[in-house]
Amino acid sequence: MDNQIKDKIRSWLPFIYLLVALFALRWTFVEPYVVPTSSMEPTLKRGDRLYALKCAYDFRFPFTDWTLFKTGTVKRGDVILFRPPHKPELIYVKRAIGLPGDRIEFREGALYINGEKMEAKPIIDDALMVDLEDGARKSLLLENLNGRKHYALLYDELFWYAAHMRDFAEVTIPEGHLLAVGDNRDNSADSREWGFLPMDNLKGRAMFIWFSSWEWRIRPERIGTLIQ
Asked: Which residues touch 184 (CB under 8 Å, ≥6 apart)?
């Protein structure tokens, strides 16, 4: 009987090794994420399922958060996954707009980096505005972060709860930290509320949307979208 059990275990070993290897690869290279809120609209919509490249900035020992070595640096405009310092049990997705040493400020909703106002042109794109929260009351902008362009949203009429988002006093980002904000500028809990993001809290860089649905409707037009 003992020999039969041992033979059975041996027959399962290749499958067990394969599972361990697959889990190690997933833990090291890929982070799946479901977008739960509207804070990154229109770039990411509620119900988007995305994959993030976990080793975009560092390589960690499988099944741990131990960093073995760095693989890259965050670039301005990267869409990043991270654990927010005030709620480390959660994972957020935002856009990195401020790097170490940068001076960041918002004036009446306009972004200033190191004293320079970032270009943000109003545009019309009905397809992008589909399924947005309060989309009818918002304006779509194409913002240029020193050569990296992305979409952003602002309410047409400023509400009291968004006033502190529109006018954010200049701060200088310390070493080892970032300033991360949502593209839905008036409706995002981000660095303007809870402060600088330690780089040690990064989980990866968002890559692409592999599936998207909301309120039982599949959005085929978003499947395969690269995240810019």
From this structure: 38, 39, 40, 41, 42, 133, 152, 153
Question: Which long-range contacts does 160-168 make (Cβ < 8 Å, 24+ apart)?
Answer: 162/186, 162/187, 164/192, 165/106, 165/109, 165/192, 166/106, 166/108, 166/109, 167/106, 167/107, 167/108, 168/104, 168/105, 168/106, 168/192
The catalytic position among 45, 54, 94, 138 is 94
Which member of 38, 39, 188, 191 is catalytic?
39
From residue 30, alpha-carbon distances to 34, 117, 178, 179 in Å are: 13, 35, 22, 23
Tens digit of pLDDT for each residue in 24-60?
455 557 888 999 999 999 999 999 999 998 888 987 7
Residue owning tokens 């480390």: 88
Amino acid at residue number 163: A
Q: Is the peptide bond before 62 cis (omega within 30 degrees of 0)?
A: no
Does the active-site annotation cover 94?
yes
Give Cβ neighbours of residue 103 (< 8 Å, ≥ 6 apart).
Answer: 112, 113, 114, 115, 170, 171, 172, 173
Catalytic annotation present for 39: yes
pLDDT tens across 87-100, in order? Answer: 999 999 999 999 99
DSSP 183: S
Residue with tokens 């994972």: 91
